[in-house]
């Protein structure tokens, strides 16, 4: 199945025949045979070539090829390699070599150009081996023809050396005035040449990488083709399009997109899984059609209601994209088949994984930002798992906040309970304590307590870890080390015995003090009534002291916890990097101080006072809880949660926005600006194989459409398949779309036609179906500021 989109093909416009021996003694190696060369060209898949001998055209060879040419054979375009003579400042002459490639492939033009060259040198009496031309003579001889001027810019006889001690401006003007490329330039030297020739360019083009560099074989022996005369291995260069002069013109206008080494072409054409074709059959009001898709950029164009979005959604239906909306057209696509790059057959459906496809309907992007939910962006960026983790992390903080409220409520309960104790010391108790009666007083029972269970557990853990360590072969324990371990184990055993001994002593002390307390109480009970009254009075005093101590302790603890909520910052954010320039922020936004929610639980809440001061009022009057009447422990927690609902809901419904670094964030940007950043983000993400967007130019700024978006598409179309519906000529022309699908609606019957930019027959159709398309085509073709040069 032949490709009907701009595809890559090998080109070689610098091949010699033995006719070069006429003008350069012994220039050709071996014997030239046109059939052999053709076999080599076919074998190497060269689609466009030229026979460029030194200062002469091998007319007979051209004619023989044209007469035997069949459809599918490599296309031969007329060319010649000339020695260009340059006058130096000291009066001497230096030459460089350049190719002239003419816009013709006919026997008549071969005879015309060959006769012109021969007549020029014959009239001047110049011997074949002495043939040279000046730039002025090039203009005089070939001014009426359309041709490309491709000088050597590196290697043997190059244009830089030819003008090094002469007027380099002349070389620059010549290259700028003629549609040209440079040949035989090492990649490391290209920028130097580009900077030199850029000096005279119009500022609109000065910073564009539009100087074309390309290498041809310069083969001098067809039997070893494609090796050059030096015998080194030749790396082919490829052009994108069809083998024609117009394709050359497009390549020299836009070399960045249309000229690449074979190794680079291999890399960009072996893209990830993509759609290769859709076979439309049996769909009502749609003409049957087989549409082939480029692995790079495909654009669907056409007038209003022509069926652009219909085809877009039909493809979405076939790949089962989650957001496709083919049902709205009321058509049956059952007989429509689709083919993948990794399959030899058409299939009813071609499902992609969720993270492999970005599918955006018309207007989706702006609506997406207007709603403020960026989850789809996360999905399109292939960051779902990281997003879920960060969201869970923030959601867990809701639990932390609820725990803080529970701790606050529990501490208040203890404080409130302490407040309700009896703090009365009766007059009789004071009299009894001051009487001269005797009674037995309790022994101070203060004794340091130990958690023996923890200590036993510690020793048990050490024992188990030592045993595991000793049996681990990884550590290569030797006999001496094993002895140390055994001694340590003995130490642990001894410490375990010591712990048991201390526990027995502690238990004995406790038992002794309990018995003493019992004896003292029994003895006091045996005393006369006055003495017993004194003993009871001292007991009540002890209880009062403990109660007073507790209420101050609980009040202090409650105050400290109140301070925690006083300063509690529930706001937080987590960041997810979507690409090197865009970060998604998940945020719990602080709308009001948490203390205000706490204080609002009370009838007499006053935000000018602290939480502690406010809740002292509830301690004094348990009816101060708003909306709940009398205070209970459960009601306080309910009220705290109810008043804090705004905070708790934010942990569930997280605020999210894009952080653009120095360029602000999506919260304070227009939907249009955010849409631009969104497109940039999804094009840059790695997991995606296919990007489908219906009219990406909608709601985008002109600067972004005509510059940033174009650059993004030009870059990422070689990394993933792109399918766009568009009416914007910049996207199609400057984006250098590989495949253009024209949708047409003729009295309700929809049809699709495939076009390519480099085909002259299609260019008017493309222009007629794009807003301002002619202007864009003209601007793209005007590569150099010729008027400025001619007037200077």
Question: Could you describe the 3D structure shown?
Answer:
It is a single chain. With 792 residues, the chain is α/β, with parallel strands linked by helices. It folds into 4 domains: 7-269, Metal-dependent hydrolases (TIM Barrel); 275-374 and 665-791, P-loop containing nucleotide triphosphate hydrolases (Rossmann fold, 3-Layer(aba) Sandwich), CATH 3.40.50; 383-419 and 548-653; 420-547, no CATH class. It is 46% helix and 15% strand. Strand 11 (275-280) and strand 12 form a beta hairpin.
CATH architecture of the largest domain: Alpha-Beta Barrel
Secondary structure category: alpha/beta
Radius of gyration: 45 Å
Would you give the CATH topology of the largest domain?
TIM Barrel
What is the helix content?
Answer: 40-55%
| Mean pLDDT rating | 85
Q: CATH homologous superfamily of the largest domain, by name? A: Metal-dependent hydrolases
Name the strands of the widest sheet in spatial order. Answer: 15-19-20-13-21-22
Give the CATH class of the largest domain.
Alpha Beta
Number of helices: 30
User: How many domains comprise the coordinates?
Assistant: 4
The dominant shape is elongated
Strand count: 22
Determine the strand fraction and express it as a percent band. 15-25%
Distance between the termini: 52 Å
Q: Indicate the low-confidence ranges by residue numbers.
A: 784-790
Largest sheet: 6 strands, mixed
